[in-house]
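Build the 3D complex.
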Amino acid sequence: MAMTYKIQIDDEVRDATEEEAAAIDAQVAEAEAQVAALAAKATARQAVLDKLGLTAEEVTALLG
Amino acid sequence: MALTTYVSGTVLTAASLNDNLAYAVTVPASTPGGLVFIKTQTIGTTVSSVAVSDAFSATYDNYFITINDGISSANGVLTFILTGSTTAYYATRLGIVYSGGTTSFGSDNNAASVTSAGVSQTSGLYAAITVANPFIAKPSYGTFSYQGSDGANGVLGFWNHRVSTSFTGFTITPSTGTLTGGTIRVYGYANS
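Done.
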């Protein structure tokens, strides 16, 4: 069952319908996955930097 | 209505002055090249999404949307959709971390929204989004850019909505938490 959300349509604020709540759930899940994916990439990048013994600034200097 | 250009010695009448003021207010909407204010929407209190209606019309082909001020209950990003359509969003984004300048890349591939079109943080909200073709029954295109204030990425991105339908509004949804306050403004680029 979808969460309850308070949504705004122009100046009207009301509870979301089930369909609207499901749409918000889908959007939020995708956005959270994107944020998590970027964080995972950053973690992986840092792991490689640590293995190479380089700082991010040194990599930037190297690769431009 | 005519625009009166005054010269030295011209008698300035109330009617003439009022005509010029009216000209200044109304003519930019039909004059090529201008960015014309369409509407503003104040964000309510602890809302999970904000839909802005009657933003797009046949008057303009291209639009600029800004979001500023306000707060989010949690740090995240703002998703963007053309109201009523939750499919076929494609986007690419480049992020640059300002502490060190390293880059990151993200994308949306047939997503339910543009998953990261602005920033929503406990310190404030921000988005700058361009929209081409929303009212024309063709795919829409645009760009977005923002800088997270939490020390993360400055982001520049490009989006495409591959649905050939006419839309009159858009909806902003935070990736986490709720929004309180802040202002959404919509401008149209005058058609030439």
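Chain B has a mean pLDDT of 90.
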